[in-house]
Each structure stands twice: as C-alpha cells, then as structure tokens.
Design goal:
Blueprint lengths: L1 H17 L2 E3 L1 H4 L12 E4 L2 E4 L4 H4 L14 H6 L16 H17 L2 E5 L2
Parallel strand pairs: 1-4
Antiparallel strand pairs: 2-3, 3-4
Length: 120
C-alpha cells in the first residue's frame, strides 16, 4: 500500500514538472512589475523564475527592476545593469563570466520557483 501511494506521488510530481509553461520573450515582457495584478518574472538561461517575493529588488524602483520581464543572463554574467547587456545572449562571455552566471542561476533556483521556459 505505501509503495502504491509513493509511486502515485512520484507520478503527480512528474506530471507537474511536465506542465511547466513555455513562453516567448514577448510574453515574458508582460511580467515586468508594472502591473500589480501580475507576478514579476525574470529569466536566467532560458528558465523563467517568479521573483514576486523579491518585489523590493525586481519591482518598480528596485535595484534590479531593469531585469523584470526579461532574460537577464548576460547582465548577471557580466555583473552589469546596462540595458545592452540585459539579454539572453551568452556569445563572447569569458569562462569566469559563465561561472558567475552559473552562481546566479544556483541562487535563483534556491530562492524562486521556476514557472516557465523561454521558447523562440
């Protein structure tokens, strides 16, 4: 009996993982913190995180508000807040910058739920 219940739990978890949304960069841009009725999303390496609990950082006026509704991968890798760096492109990043990005990704995974993946 326990084994049956345990396997059902595992099946439900797998279904939940498969139900992860896909969204385009255009759709992601709608979750930029300007509409208080919507969550705030930030993408890192194509994974979309719900950062609403970090509203003081990612919401309007926050230190990282420029990342809201965007894939901030390059900017995080370069430790930059420059508009031209707020993109998903990893082209030309150094090994050290990729390491910095991976560290950021680990922090996001630990702190915020993944709600979607970015599709072209």
């Amino acid at each position: 009996m326990w084994r049956e219940i345990h396997s059902l739990d595992r099946e439900e978890e797998e279904e939940e993982e498969e139900e992860e949304m896909e969204m385009t960069a255009q759709q992601l841009s709608e979750y930029n913190g300007t509409d208080p009725s919507k969550p705030i999303y930030v993408a890192v390496k194509g994974r979309v995180f719900d950062v609403t609990t970090g509203k003081s950082f990612y919401g309007p006026g926050g230190a990282y508000a420029m990342f809201a509704g965007k894939d901030a991968s390059r900017a995080l890798a370069k430790m930059s807040k420059n508009e031209e760096d707020i993109t998903s492109s990893l082209d030309g990043l150094t090994e050290k910058e990729i390491g910095v990005l991976n560290d950021w990704e680990t922090k996001f995974v630990a702190k915020y739920p993944v709600v979607a993946t970015i599709i072209s």
